[in-house]
Amino acid sequence: MSFSCSTLLIVSCFFFSTVLISSRADDDHGSASVSYNVDSFKSGIEAKRNFVMFFAPWCGHCKNLAPTWNELAKIYNKVDDSPVTIAKVDCTEETSLCADHEVTGFPTLKLFEKGGKSFKRYSGKRDLEALKNFVQENVLGLEKEAESEDAAAEEKADALVVLTDDNFEATVATGAFFIKFFAPWCGHCKKLAPTWDELAETFASHKQVSVAKIDCTRSTVICKQYEVRGYPTLLWFQDGNKIAKYQGSRTHDALKDYVVTMLESAAKKDEPEEKTIDETKKDPEEDAQGEVKDLTEENFKSFLSSRLVFVKFFAPWCGHCQRLAPTWEELAGKVKDEDVTIAKVDCTQHKSVCDAHQVRGYPTLKMFRNGEFVADYKGSRTLDDLQQFVSRNLGARDEL
């Protein structure tokens, strides 16, 4: 058998057109949802529940649904412990698979139980809210008894503020809020729920802070805005601004201590600084030794310009910073007769200074000489080790 050049050209054109159409079809129908073929469909269904869109790339209704389907996939496919996979099957490529599942029109949407022995066909509206509600009712509803217990516990705490996309900005605009970003199906969220209720009750009569929650499966706009990637995410807000992410233990005592620390920090920031007449006139260059010096955006560069300075960059709510504080004061006393200054910068108040010196965590300890960065301190935070680091840098100066 022989082929003419024109025949080979037609075959080549057909092959490349098919590849191009396939690639465009996947692009058109979103990258967040999982694309199945015969083999991956079987393994995917065996692993967990799947909500599957059977489609054809040329189908207008499929194209209209594609962006919404992709948004649904972003909600469920990009988080740990998701109870469902949002997937798709191109029926122009997987014809036998679509035939096996009696797909006769496009798009066909089916929710398969784990193992694939049963499914429920979706025939409702094709907007995001309707699709989310379908998943909520049919996936989460299968664990209704356990879920209802958690819901009852959540609703029991009248002090717990419930936030949504609609009320979030107006509610958190004034005051302090400790907010739990969660998903109802998340196991870690379920474990935290009674503790979070207890925390809300603990601070129910406290006018300075509110303990709140927001369901990220329903309030997707806010959760996306604050880059919530996993559940639960616990964030501290002050007057509408995100201040910090809590990453400590999730016991009631640990959470309570964190709230108290954050409130104390905010209170100190609001207190007017009391100064005597002599103090207001004092030059920051004077009395440079014997105590920890508070550096600010205004005096940082000038203060460091002509001396050796060991600086602690910190945040008031940081537990490690709090533990280091008395040692840092003691260090200042120990070296008061040396030609070195022990200083500190509060990064919650002087963010630009900390950003300029690439402070990524707290506390960060840096040595400066005549305004120039010398070294980061990475050692133990005992008094002896810190004092030895200072002595080495004093010796290095003397050798110059």
UniProtKB/TrEMBL annotation:
UniProt cross-references to PROSITE patterns, sorted A to Z: THIOREDOXIN_1, THIOREDOXIN_2
Keywords, ordered alphabetically: Redox-active center, Repeat, Signal
Entries under InterPro entries matching the protein: PDI (IPR051063), PDI_thioredoxin-like_dom (IPR005788), Thioredoxin-like_sf (IPR036249), Thioredoxin_CS (IPR017937), Thioredoxin_domain (IPR013766)
Record-level GO BP terms: protein folding
Superkingdom of the source species: Eukaryota
Leader peptide range in chain numbering: 1-25
GO molecular function, one term: protein disulfide isomerase activity
UniProt region (Disordered), positions on chain: 269-292
A GO cellular component annotation in the UniProt record: endoplasmic reticulum
Domain Thioredoxin: 19-140, 151-264, 274-395
Protein family according to the UniProt entry: Belongs to the protein disulfide isomerase family.
Protein's recorded name: Thioredoxin domain-containing protein
UniProt source species: Elysia crispata
Taxonomic classification: Eukaryota, Metazoa, Spiralia, Lophotrochozoa, Mollusca
